[in-house]
Design a protein that fits this description.
This protein has 394 residues and is α+β, with helices and mostly antiparallel strands. The chain contains 13 helices and 5 strands. The chain has a 5-stranded mixed sheet, sandwiched between helices.
């Protein structure tokens, strides 16, 4: 009898401690209205029953208190499993737990009205086992996904069945052990469900964070690309002439200086040319036709020189070409080809005069080379226009 009291007290402590742990953990950690939260909150029932009995009931009722607490807990599980659970049914689940709690209070307070304690131990075990088996069957039938909760009910059923053999030492010892395993597994179920819920939120947050980071990075790269393109456009605009897209005067001079500075041993030719009688064209046909002449000249020039040759507009109708790797004779040949190609232009017709100079024999600065090429251009004008001249020979 003493051994029975000790084992009942051990089971009593298991129920009250684990019930309090599971309930407090649920209300403090599980913030989502879910079935796992409702099942965790149901553990308030055995805790209140055990706490109330320890304060107000005689210790002779301990076996009855243990039975009624686990039976009511299983009843709560049964109702919660039967509910088609969603956010709306969560309120119904809480009301159900409250109603079961109130009923439990009247069962304990008014024992003479509902004298369940008069049931034989055999019948008590039968009722508890029957409810637990129904729960297990429903979980199987509904394909209840939480295997840990299913296992906890198996342990609870084993504890109930072994408590039937209270007159056998093995049954006395094994029943509390299965009870401990049942409540420990219930706690694991509530803990892992809450943990998985938190991890799910963390994964969702990380997914959203990555999505935002990708969007931000994409937008930043897009803005950087726009910035670089705008910067490139500004840079090109600052270096080129708006009408012809050729290099402007400052840029072409800088290019010649850089070629002299960084490629001191490499020869190149400078060619300067303009449209013959361009003022007459502008005055007679208008500036629009004059711009057409300049555009046609630039187009023909690009088709007459190599891709690596550099074209610059010096101002008005005056242009400069830099021909890398070319000496004077080769420069004359390029100039003659250009002159002939320009003379074939129609609507309107015009010709050009050209002067050339060559590095390194004609100077060691851009100013010297351009000045000599300009002298050659002037000489071509003096000789009748539509010609190529090399001033140094003259």
């Amino acid at each position: 009898m003493i051994q029975l009291d000790i084992l009942n007290q051990a089971k009593f402590l298991i129920i009250i401690c684990f019930s309090f742990l599971i309930f407090t953990f649920t209300i403090s950690m599980n913030k989502k209205n879910s079935l796992s939260k409702a099942l965790g909150l149901a553990f308030i029932l055995p805790f209140i029953i055990c706490a109330y009995s320890s304060l107000f009931l005689d210790s002779t009722y301990t076996p009855y208190i243990l039975w009624i607490s686990e039976t009511i807990l299983s009843m709560a599980f049964l109702i919660l499993i039967l509910l088609k659970f969603n956010n709306k049914s969560y309120d119904a689940a809480i009301i159900t737990i409250f109603i079961i709690g109130v009923c439990s209070y009247f069962i304990l307070m008014e024992m003479h009205i509902i004298p369940l304690y008069l049931l034989s131990h055999r019948n008590q075990v039968f009722i508890s086992a029957y409810i637990i088996i129904v729960n297990i069957g429903l979980m199987k039938y509904r394909k209840f996904p939480e295997k840990t909760f299913f296992l906890a009910n198996i342990f609870l059923l084993a504890s109930t069945l072994f408590s039937f053999f209270q007159n056998h030492n093995n049954g006395l010892i094994i029943a509390p052990g299965f009870s401990f395993m049942a409540y420990l597994t219930f706690y694991k179920y509530v803990y892992y469900e809450t943990y998985n819920e938190h991890m799910s939120k963390i994964r969702e947050i990380n997914r959203l964070k990555k999505k935002i980071d990708r969007s931000v990075n994409k937008e930043v790269k897009k803005q950087l690309l726009h910035y670089e393109m705008a910067k490139e456009k500004l840079l090109i605009k600052s270096k080129t002439d708006s009408l012809t897209k050729a290099y402007n005067k400052e840029t072409i001079i800088n290019i010649i200086d850089e070629m002299i500075e960084f490629k001191k041993n490499e020869k190149f030719c400078v060619m300067m040319f303009d449209i013959d009688n361009f003022k007459y064209i502008n005055d007679t046909f208008g500036h629009i036709i004059g711009d057409v002449c300049i555009k046609n000249l630039v187009s023909t020039t690009r088709n007459s020189i190599r891709e690596k040759d550099l074209l610059g507009r010096f101002g008005g109708d005056e242009f400069v070409i830099v021909l890398p790797g070319i000496d004077v004779e080769e420069g004359k040949a390029v100039a003659e080809r250009l002159r002939e190609n320009v003379s074939l232009i129609r609507e309107p017709e015009f010709t050009i005069s050209i002067g050339i100079s060559c590095y390194p024999q004609d100077g060691d600065t851009a100013k010297d080379l351009v000045s000599l090429a300009d002298e050659g251009l002037y000489a071509s004008k003096e000789k009748g226009k539509n010609m190529v001249s090399y001033a140094k020979v003259l």
